[in-house]
Design a protein that fits this description.
The chain is an alpha+beta fold and 183 residues long. Helices cover 45% and strands 13% of the residues. It contains six helices and four strands, in the order αβαβαααβαβ. The protein has a four-stranded antiparallel sheet. α4 (62-87) runs antiparallel to α5 (100-126). The longest helix is centred in the middle third of the chain and has 27 residues, at 100-126. It is elongated, with a radius of gyration of 25 Å.
Length: 183
């Protein structure tokens, strides 16, 4: 029983519904999104066409993170070379100190390096990784998500989540089972 200081989100992670087929999971995800649920996720043993759009994950901020990383890399590479030539000037063959064509290879390489590092670190951060233990791992049936079962989880942090109402909503979609997941 919850104490007055805790909320249901502190006690439980969410409700997990198991479906026998990918079509039923896709239909359930579309219905849950149409009903106003936003903090939900779907798990399946294979990619399902349209599932990401159905649960509202069609947009990501990762391209912006990679672009910013690339811009920082280009600025770092160019400014580093400019500063070095101004700090320690060498007159070689009469070329000017600020010879931008000579700066292009290093600038390009640092752009690629910073963009790729931003892609990897941004992907990890946006996916909430690393997370060695997820509350769904405690549900025995969830191990079948990598074999032949399909799951839809509505989290307790969803503003529309009501334990009885959400459970009735999920049961109305005829899942194989609905499980309350401890946090």
């Amino acid at each position: 029983m919850a104490t007055p200081e805790t909320t249901i989100a502190d006690d439980y992670y969410g409700l997990l519904a198991e479906f026998p087929s990918s079509d039923e999971l896709l239909r359930a995800a579309e219905q849950a999104t149409a009903a106003g649920y936003r903090r939900l996720d779907a798990y399946s043993p294979m990619p399902i066409e349209g599932l990401a759009e159905a649960i509202g994950h069609e947009r990501t901020r990762l391209p912006l993170v990679v672009l910013i990383g690339g811009i920082i890399g280009a600025a770092t590479g160019y400014s580093m070379q400019w500063w070095m030539t101004m700090d320690y000037p060498l007159n070689i063959g009469g070329r000017p100190l600020h010879s931008w064509p000579a700066f292009i290879p290093v600038t390009f390489e640092l752009t690629i390096l910073f963009a790729s590092l931003a892609a990897v670190l941004g992907m990890l951060a946006l996916n909430g990784l690393p997370r060695p233990n997820h509350p769904l791992f405690a549900v025995p049936e969830f191990s079948l998500a990598t074999q032949d079962k399909y799951f839809l989880c509505i989290e307790t942090t969803d503003p529309q989540f009501d334990i009885e109402g959400t459970q009735e909503f999920l049961i109305g979609m005829n899942p194989t089972r609905v499980t309350l997941v401890d946090s």
